[in-house]
Amino acid sequence: MTTYSSGPTNKSFLSNNKYEFVIDRLPHVKFFLQSITLPDISLNGAQVPNPYVLVNLPNNTLNFSELTLTYIMDEEMRSWKEIYDWITNLGNPEGLNKLGTLTREAGRSNSITSDASLLVKSNANNPLIKFTFRDIFPSTLTGVTFSSVDSQEFLTGTITFLYTHYTVEYI
């Protein structure tokens, strides 16, 4: 006879500030990162009619939401400039060559896309779970508001990335 465990072996709660996000080509963003949202994943359904009701069945198409992160800007705006350079090289507003100085070779500092990793850590700061985002590229870089009316605040920005998919592994 099989017996089932009545509860989890690890009873610690997940902390919202125990993480590390790494994109090789963006060292300044890594250092100044403030928050990141693990994207939604959804599975499309297919409706199959029968004489009484439409029956929902799983389809084989996954949808991954955008990856969004917020970072605090360094005084020289290097974190902002890293994303600006990447996104303008992808769109190249000055010519028909839409690759600009980018290459299709993976792993290069000037490649079109990059892989990224989100490491979720335990309360003791040990890596627990690794989320790997494949073929990311920036799609949105928010604007920056300078104001002499407000009190002094440190400026933040938001970056939105698109990617093919992400994987999850326990470390």
Q: State the share of residues found in helices, binned by percent.
A: 10-25%
Tell me the radius of gyration: 21 Å
Structural classification: mainly beta
Determine the number of helices (DSSP H or I, runs of at least 4 residues). 2
Strand content: 35-45%
| Overall mean confidence score, pLDDT | 87
Order of helices and strands: EHEEEEHEEEE
The 3D shape can be described as globular
Biggest sheet details: 7 strands, antiparallel
Uncertain spans:
none
Quick one: how many beta strands?
A: 9
State the end-to-end CA separation.
Answer: 32 Å
How would you characterize this protein structure?
By secondary structure, the protein is mainly beta. Helices cover 12% and strands 42% of the residues. The strands form two sheets. Strands 1, 2, 5, 6, 7, 8 and 9 form a seven-stranded antiparallel beta sheet that branches. Strands 3-4 form a two-stranded antiparallel sheet. The radius of gyration is 21 Å and the shape is globular. 11% of the residues are buried. The model has no long low-confidence stretch (mean pLDDT 87).
